[in-house]
């Protein structure tokens, strides 16, 4: 579930292991390219954290962020 905080959409994803987390990141990377909208994210072992914000809109959450968040949710 995405939470809006500090002008960003945020969600943490937990996987069975690093390989699953990395595969998820690869799928998200392809989506980000399709949407021409790239997340800020981190990965530590089986955990991926993603923050979405629209930089050219003053670092606020826009429909562009919400669309990418929905697309990421559809991966699961």
Number of structural units classed as domains: 1
The strands making up the biggest β-sheet line up spatially as 1-2-4-3
Task: Write the element-wise H/E pattern from the N-terminal end onward.
Answer: EEHEEH
The averaged pLDDT comes out at 96
Q: Uncertain runs with pLDDT below 50, 5 residues or more?
A: none
Briefly note the structural class of the backbone: alpha+beta
Tally of extended strands?
A: 4
Query: Briefly, what CATH class?
Result: Alpha Beta
What's the CATH superfamily, by name?
Transcriptional coactivator/pterin dehydratase
Please name the CATH topology. Answer: Gyrase A, domain 2
Q: Which outline best applies? A: globular
Share of β-strand residues:
25-35%
By DSSP (H or I, 4+ residues per run), the number of helices equals 2
- Please outline the major beta sheet: 4 strands, antiparallel
CATH level-two architecture: 2-Layer Sandwich
Distance between the termini: 12 Å
Walk me through this protein's architecture:
One of its GO terms (molecular function) is 4-alpha-hydroxytetrahydrobiopterin dehydratase activity. With 76 residues, this protein is of the alpha+beta class. It has one domain: Transcriptional coactivator/pterin dehydratase (Gyrase A, domain 2). The chain contains two helices and four strands, in the order ββαββα. It has helices at 18-35, 63-74; strands at residues 3-5, 8-14, 40-44, 47-52. The longest helix has 18 residues, at 18-35. The chain is globular.
